[in-house]
């Protein structure tokens, strides 16, 4: 059932403490002025509202706009590009509380003009607990065939059984800022335990054991690799630490069938100076996880928080490819 109330206002992306000096792509939000039917072309108006975000703030995987609406969808992705993308969203209620496990329909539209948009695909988003605690996100996969302005519509069934709709605009770039799926990542020669003590390489407490191999050596090893770039001790989104815990558990399960690498965001594990690798990888946010096959090519990547239910199957597929 589609609702016919006035436009649903969508809040801006939140700006946390300044944690990373890489440029954050300005994201847009929208007011969709009329309900969207199942027909391919919407003649109802996407009133695009540009939301100016601080250019040096990191993207947060859980954006919490204050709208007072029964359903708000927030999109934190900072590097969407033509092709296949992991697409993350959060669903919030009128009190800014995360809505878990909501039955949903997700629709992607290509915005054509200020008054028309073309329905491109319809899918659902799976809910995953990423931590810390029971905090979660919704994840789906979107494939975008052209750059420019796009629209997202989410129809969700709330805990009380009522169906609500929320819409938001986002931008798709022609090419990815970070290493693209199908491309070789930078052959980074970051410092390792051969160069510095662990407390100069890692902000996790205690430090993790993923600092004995450079990315350059891993790419030349002929073995799949997981590469995490993030700062568990200073992560503005609070997802770096849980991501690292998930990775270490996966490492216990899979052992040396993969190379496991953690690259810190900050030089000598101390803000504010960024490690050289951050510019090499052109990160607009943190954390990131890249899965690289034995040929040294990126096969998948994850921005922000990721759950074992999402990461583990991808690692298994990486080993059997």
Describe it for me?
There is one protein chain. This protein is α+β, with helices and mostly antiparallel strands. It folds into two domains: 28-172, Immunoglobulin-like, CATH 2.60.40; 198-320, Glutaredoxin (3-Layer(aba) Sandwich). It is built from four helices and 15 strands. A five-stranded antiparallel sheet has the order 2-7-6-10-11, with no helix packed on it.
- Strand fraction: 25-35%
Overall geometry: globular
Structural domains: how many: 2
Q: Give, in spatial order, the strands making up the sheet with the most strands.
A: 2-7-6-10-11
Biggest beta sheet summary: 5 strands, antiparallel
Distance between termini? 42 Å
Indicate the CATH class of the largest domain.
Answer: Mainly Beta
Report helical residue fraction.
Answer: 10-25%
Task: State the CATH topology of the largest domain.
Answer: Immunoglobulin-like
What multimeric state do the chains show? Answer: single chain
Number of helices: 4
Element order, helices and strands? EEEEEEEEEEEHEHEHEEH
Kindly summarize this structure in a few lines.
The chain is an alpha+beta fold.
């Amino acid at each position: 059932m589609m609702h016919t109330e006035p436009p649903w206002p969508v809040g801006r992306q939140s700006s946390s403490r300044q944690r990373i000096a890489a440029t954050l792509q300005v994201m847009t939000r929208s007011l969709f002025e009329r309900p969207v039917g199942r027909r391919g072309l919407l003649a109802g108006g996407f009133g695009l509202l540009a939301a100016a975000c601080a250019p040096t703030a990191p993207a947060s995987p859980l954006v919490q706009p204050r709208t007072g609406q029964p359903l708000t969808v927030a999109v934190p992705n900072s590097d969407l590009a033509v092709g296949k993308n992991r697409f993350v969203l959060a669903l919030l209620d009128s009190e800014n509380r995360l809505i878990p496990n909501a039955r949903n329909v997700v629709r992607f539209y290509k915005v054509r003009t200020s008054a028309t948009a073309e329905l491109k695909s319809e899918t659902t988003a799976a809910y995953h607990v990423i931590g810390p605690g029971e905090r979660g996100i919704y994840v789906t996969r979107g494939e975008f065939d052209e750059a420019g302005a796009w629209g997202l519509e989410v129809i969700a069934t709330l805990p009380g059984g009522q169906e609500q709709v929320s819409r938001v605009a986002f931008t798709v770039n022609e090419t990815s800022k970070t290493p693209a799926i199908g491309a070789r990542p930078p052959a980074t020669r970051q410092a390792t335990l051969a160069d510095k003590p662990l407390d100069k390489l890692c902000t996790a407490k205690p430090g993790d054991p993923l600092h004995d191999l450079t990315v350059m050596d891993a790419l030349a090893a002929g073995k799949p690799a997981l590469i995490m770039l993030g700062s568990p001790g200073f992560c503005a989104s609070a997802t770096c630490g849980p991501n690292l815990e998930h990775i270490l558990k996966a490492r216990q399960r899979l052992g040396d069938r993969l190379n496991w690498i953690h690259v810190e965001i900050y030089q000598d594990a101390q803000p504010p100076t960024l490690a050289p690798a951050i510019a090499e990888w052109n990160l607009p946010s943190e954390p990131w996880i890249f899965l690289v096959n034995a040929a040294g090519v990126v096969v998948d990547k994850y921005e922000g928080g990721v759950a074992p239910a999402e990461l583990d199957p991808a690692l298994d597929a990486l080993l059997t490819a």
